[in-house]
UniProtKB/TrEMBL annotation:
Pfam families: MFS_2
Domain Major facilitator superfamily (MFS) profile: 250-449
Alphabetical UniProt keywords: Membrane, Transmembrane, Transmembrane helix
TM helices/strands, residue ranges: 20-39, 59-76, 97-114, 134-163, 175-198, 204-224, 245-268, 288-308, 320-341, 347-369, 381-404, 410-432
Protein name as it appears in the record: Na+/melibiose symporter-like transporter
Statement: the UniProt record of this protein carries the keyword tRNA processing: no
Top-level division of the source organism's lineage: Bacteria
GO molecular function: transmembrane transporter activity
Native organism: Victivallis vadensis
SUPFAM superfamilies from the UniProt entry: MFS general substrate transporter (SSF103473)
Keyword Transmembrane helix: yes
Length: 449
């Protein structure tokens, strides 16, 4: 922070902001995230329901909604992330990837919403009336999901990196709290205003949300400016040398390898809840989609209330400590859900408890990465973490679907409990190692020699 001519200026790299400029930056990034989060809520929430309407198994849902997207993430994320780190253009190094792929994401999201009608039309065209297009429609849904996920990964791989490039470091914790609030509000609006119509107006929901997303995200990209970057470090010629250098940079230091695995286990812990919580509420508890939406909306209100104070706590006590506290709370809360959730009231109570503990954890995740990863290779190290996460999720999503087929939807609480424990243990090791590397005052990323 610096004063020039009586005006307070904030700096991030070569970028300089007045208070008004910083406010403008926050507004556009938060608006983009609000619409991005609403769009990202649609497919995970409604596609399992769409598949169940065609009698798809939970294993099939796990593979289509989790394993295949995770495999795509494993392939696409490191390429896009590393390429983004090295991109130099008049738009910056992140904006080109955020600006040009959302139209394709929106297109396939719309097609996914109309897959029932498209599937019936082509089935009747090819095989005539009288049969059941269920299998053909499931294959069509799978194709649209894969295309949607593939294009969405370009944005998902890069969007979070831009914060480290344009937001002044002293505001990163508070910005991330506002960012989480915006995302929570997007999900809350979807749950409260849209979810009640999930079964009756599914095609319209997919279409409207996709159009809102592409228009708002384009506006954000045109109004957020990146600064100047130093030239990227030279790389050895040849694909083999580039890949070897990538893996040496990211995986030769145990500190980062263990951190990647610990964070990945946290994502593994939530796969069953992400895919089957709606089906648990509808099929086991007898809730309506409107009641489920209200539970999500109340959880969103709790998150909104907590994210801003959590931002101050993250800045004050360091995100690693807050993340560990969140993981410990997740472990303690899940047994309550398994034993005591039997109706709307207890499901609501559990939704509020989960909103609290995941707000604690989510408010610290990206600040943790910003604090611990090397700044000049931030995208590269994020992509390495995403690769580890994707490898585990390829197996975990299919295994989660099989697990639920075997034991039932209630056991999603057991899954979360079991896989959060290794996350906590590994991150606890990271915490003690971080202390030895300088901790709050002197930490420097332990790069390879």
């Amino acid at each position: 922070m610096k004063e020039e001519g009586g005006e307070v200026l904030y700096r991030c790299g070569t970028l300089t902001y007045t208070r008004l400029g910083l406010l403008n930056l926050f507004i556009w990034l938060l608006w983009g995230d609000f619409c991005f989060s609403m769009m990202e809520t649609v497919s995970p929430s409604l596609t399992p329901l769409l598949l169940k309407m065609h009698n798809a198994s939970n294993l099939t849902i796990g593979i289509l909604m989790g394993s295949i997207p995770a495999l795509l993430n494993f392939i696409i994320n490191p390429i896009v992330s590393t390429r983004s780190d090295r991109t130099r253009s008049r738009w910056g190094r992140r904006i080109p990837y955020l600006l040009f792929t959302p139209p394709f994401t929106a297109l396939f999201l719309i097609l996914l919403g109309w897959s029932d009608q498209i599937g019936a039309f082509f089935y009747n065209l090819l095989w005539g009336d009288g049969g059941s297009p269920a299998t053909f429609t499931i294959c069509l849904i799978a194709f649209f999901v894969i295309c949607y996920q593939g294009f969405d990964l370009f944005v998902g791989s890069v969007f979070y990196y831009i914060f480290a490039d344009v937001v002044p470091q002293q505001f990163i914790g508070r910005f991330m709290s506002l960012f989480r609030i915006a995302g929570t509000l997007g999900g809350m609006c979807f749950n409260l205003l849209v979810m009640p119509y999930a079964k009756t107006h599914m095609s319209v929901i997919f279409t409207v949300v996709a159009l809102i997303y592409v228009l708002s995200f384009t506006g954000m990209c045109l109004n957020v400016k990146e600064g100047e970057y130093p030239p990227p470090p030279p790389v050895k010629p040849g694909l083999k040398a580039m890949v070897a250098g990538y893996f040496r940079d990211c995986f030769s230091v145990p500190f980062f390898s263990i951190l990647f695995v610990g964070l990945a286990f946290n994502y593994v812990s939530t796969v069953c809840r992400n895919m089957f919580n709606l089906l648990f509420a509808l099929n086991d508890l007898g809730l309506t989609t409107a009641q489920f939406g209200r539970v999500g909306a109340v959880g969103g209100i709790v998150g909104v209330a907590l994210y801003l104070p959590m931002g101050y706590l993250v800045d004050r006590f360091h995100p690693l400590r807050i993340y560990l506290a969140g993981a410990l709370l997740v472990i303690f809360v899940n047994p309550f859900g398994f034993f005591f959730v039997h109706g709307y009231g207890t499901f609501m109570a559990m939704g509020i408890l989960l909103a609290v503990v995941y707000t604690v954890q989510n408010s610290s995740l990206l600040p943790l990465c910003v604090k611990l990863y090397p700044k000049e290779q931030f995208g590269q190290f994020c992509s390495a973490a995403a690769m580890v996460k994707a490898l585990l999720l390829v197996a975990a999503n299919a295994a989660g679907g099989w697990f639920i087929d075997l034991f039932g939807y209630r056991w999603l609480y057991v899954w979360d409990f079991l896989f959060t424990i290794p996350c906590f243990v590994l991150l606890l090791w990271i915490y003690f190692r971080w202390k030895k590397l300088g901790g709050d005052e002197g930490y420097q990323p332990p790069l390879r020699p």
